[in-house]
């Protein structure tokens, strides 16, 4: 069973490593994931461990509290308030690409999808570039590859940037859509695992700029890119 905690007092990567090591040394702890940027710890336990025992294993510099207790103190935001940033981004991309298509001499659905995906990847990669380290800290908490190889988070951010440029420049549609299909399909696995396990994890889709929780919205976002890349791939092969 996985339990989520908030940990205050971590100021650097060394603190993060010390907290992880201390918690991992406790009997009945199977695995520990710690994030300094999110101030969280996900502890997999073979049997329940009281909070005071977890605290006693830590240096007095660090304070551990139950995530649910911490969440109760924070003001509740509505669904619209929570996901307003990502909704606005989708509306902007949809509106701009639709206007561009409607003002063209002929309407080409495949061209619209290409422009939409270019806008999606360019904008989402932009937010990741604002704080690559923060994005990496969030992404490794749930992505199946980044958990084992953290440097993949940096590669992923630049892959999104390159895909945006490739869609905009109409670079080899077969390669571009194939890479998109593979990358987004792998990415959605970690998202599905996190949502189904009901972990309180910060979504890294917009980097470390917005405090968006992992949810079905993230699944829809990744799923849309998978379906569009698959559709464009089939049109290319037809």
| Fraction of residues in β-strands | 5-15%
Radius of gyration: 20 Å
pLDDT < 50 runs, ≥5 residues: 69-74
Strand order of the largest sheet: 2-3-1-4
DSSP, total strands: 4
Fraction of residues in H or I helices? 55-70%
Largest sheet: 4 strands, antiparallel
**Ends apart, CA distance between termini:** 48 Å
Walk me through the structure:
The chain has 238 residues and is α+β, with helices and mostly antiparallel strands. It is 61% helix and 10% strand. The protein is built from nine helices and four strands, in the order E-H-E-E-H-E-H-H-H-H-H-H-H. Strands 2-3-1-4 form a four-stranded antiparallel sheet. Helix 5 crosses helix 9, helix 6 crosses helix 7 and helix 8 packs antiparallel against helix 9. The termini are far apart. The relative contact order is 0.12.
Short summary:
61% of the residues lie in helices and 10% in strands. It has 238 residues and is of the alpha+beta class.
Sum up the structure in keywords:
238 residues, alpha+beta, four-stranded antiparallel β-sheet, 9 helices, 4 strands, 10% strand
What layout of secondary structure does this protein have?
Layout: E1 2-8, H1 13-24, E2 29-35, E3 40-45, H2 51-57, E4 63-66, H3 67-73, H4 79-102, H5 109-130, H6 132-139, H7 151-169, H8 173-197, H9 216-237
Antiparallel strand pairs: 1-3, 1-4, 2-3
Helix pairs in contact: 4-5, 5-7, 5-9, 6-7, 7-8, 8-9
């Amino acid at each position: 069973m996985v339990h989520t905690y908030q940990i205050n007092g971590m100021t650097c990567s060394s603190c993060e490593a010390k907290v992880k090591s201390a918690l991992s040394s406790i009997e009945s702890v199977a695995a520990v994931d710690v994030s300094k940027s999110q101030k969280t710890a996900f502890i997999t336990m073979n049997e329940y461990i009281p909070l005071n025992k977890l605290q006693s294993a830590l240096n007095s510099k660090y304070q551990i509290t139950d995530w649910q207790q911490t969440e109760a103190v924070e003001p509740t935001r509505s669904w619209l308030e929570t996901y307003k940033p990502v909704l606005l981004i989708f509306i902007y991309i949809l509106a701009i690409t639709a206007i561009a298509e409607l003002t063209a001499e002929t309407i080409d659905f495949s061209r619209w999808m290409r422009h939409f995906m270019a806008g999606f990847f360019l904008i989402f990669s932009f937010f990741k570039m604002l704080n690559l380290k923060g994005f990496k800290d969030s992404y490794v908490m749930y992505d199946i590859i980044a958990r084992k190889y953290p440097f993949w988070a940096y590669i992923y951010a630049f892959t999104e940037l390159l895909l945006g440029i490739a869609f905009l420049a109409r670079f080899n549609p077969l390669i571009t859509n194939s890479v998109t299909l593979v990358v987004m399909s792998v990415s959605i696995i970690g998202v599905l695992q996190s949502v189904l396990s009901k972990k309180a994890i910060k979504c890294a889709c917009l980097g470390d700029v917005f405090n968006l929780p992992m949810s079905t919205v993230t699944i829809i976002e990744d799923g849309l890119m998978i379906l569009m890349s698959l559709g464009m791939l089939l049109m290319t092969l037809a």
